[in-house]
Structure formats: structure tokens, C-alpha cells
Amino acid sequence: MQSLHLGLRTGLPSGLIRDLRKTGTAIGQLQGLDDRWHLTDAAGVVVTTTKNGGPIALKRIRSRLGGRPFSAYLNDLGFGTRPDAIAIIAGTNPYHYLDIVRTNSATRGVRPSEVVARVRTWEARYGFKLDGAGFDWLLGTFSNPPDDWRQLAAEVQEFAPDVVDQGAGDLNALAFELERLNGVYAWWD
Predict the structure, then answer these.
(1) Are 143 and 125 in contact (CB under 8 A)?
(2) Are 100 and 32 in contact (CB under 8 A)?
(3) Residue 152 and residue 186: Cα distance in Å, rounded?
(4) 49 CB neighbour count, 10 Å cutoff
(5) Residue 29 is inside which H or E element, if any?
(6) Is the pLDDT assigned to residue 75 strictly greater than 80?
(7) Residue 28 CB: number of other CB atoms within 10 A?
(8) Model pLDDT, residue 4
(9) What is the reported pTM?
(10) Which of 111, 99, 102, 49 is nearest to 76 (CA)?
(11) Pairing between strand 26-33 and 183-187?
């Protein structure tokens, strides 16, 4: 696939796409979900990295974007079993990215709009910066961490109980993980 052609399909300049090709192992069309929950091409690209290479590639890509009107987010975490992937979109609004991937929990009844509302709350309170999201997960860090990590852990557990039930095991362990991360990793099954 030629980068110029891909650039026209994604709304990203072909020069940027050529530059992004150097940061991963493959590049392709970003996929999102439409209002009927069907996969659809979205305006952006996905750069595939190595296994566990997403966080480092994200930093590298964000550095290359440096002030330009584009954003990068972890799009898929392979947890060492498959490559990670980074999404790059035009614009700097993280809520646009969340709208593309429609982060939600069908099993817990958490709609995409509720995820956006929670992220907005964390952004206002803690300076939350979205680092990644997919269909049923999100990840971000704080520039203004909370004073009470256990209180935040209770909020996260209420919002995404699987983080405790299938992850940390209890509220204290989750509070420790949130503080270690200086942010939130939430998911739903």
C-alpha cells in the first residue's frame, strides 16, 4: 500500500505517514465502530509495534508529532502475546478518539458517553491524560495525582469492577497499582 494512497484515506499527510512507518513494524487503516457497533474505517492509521513495544513507541510517536495537530494513543495492548498497536488521528481532542473506538462495557451497561463523562471528571480533578483506549478498556496518567489513592480506587472499582474482580483482587491492591501507574487502567469483560 503506498503511503500517499493511505494518507488520502486517513486524512493524514503522506509525509507524516512515511515518518510513522519508521516507528513500527507495519501501518494500516484505523478501524472504529459506527453507531450500530459495526467496524468501519476511521480517519487515522494504526502503527503495529513489537510485543510489549506500545508504550515506548507511543512516546516516540508523540515526540515526532511534537506540537502538530495530530494525536497518538495506544490502540491495542497485546500483553506480550501479540504486538501492540498505536492509533494516530488528526486533531488533539482525546474525546474524538474515544468516539472512534467507542470505549464501553456492554456487560456492565457502561455506555461510551459514560466513559467520556468519567474521563472528563478525571481530567478536571487530576489532569488525566488519555494514553490509550479500545472497545473495552482505557489507560491514562495524571499530572495532578489524587491525595487519596484508596478513594480513587473505590471510584475505579465502582466504574470498572473487573479491575478488582479479575485483576488487583482488593481495593488496597488496586490503590497501590493506581499510585504506581500514576493513573488509571480500566477494563471491562
Answers:
(1) no
(2) yes
(3) 12
(4) 24
(5) strand 26-33
(6) yes
(7) 13
(8) 42
(9) 0.91
(10) 49
(11) unpaired
Tell me the CA distances in angstroms from 124 to 78, 117, 127, one per residue in order. 30, 11, 6
Q: How far is CA 65 from CA 68, 79, 105, 121, 142, in A?
A: 5, 25, 31, 27, 21
> What three-state secondary structure class fits 152?
helix
| H/E element, 168 | none
Across the beta sheet with 26-33, what order do the strands follow?
Answer: 26-33, 39-51, 83-90, 70-76, 128-134, 137-142, 183-187
Grid cell digits, residue 37: 457497533
Of 162 and 7, which is predicted with more confidence? 162
Predicted confidence at residue 7, as pLDDT, reads 52
List Cβ<8 Å contacts ≥24 apart for 168-175.
175/149, 175/150
d(CA 168, CA 28): 34
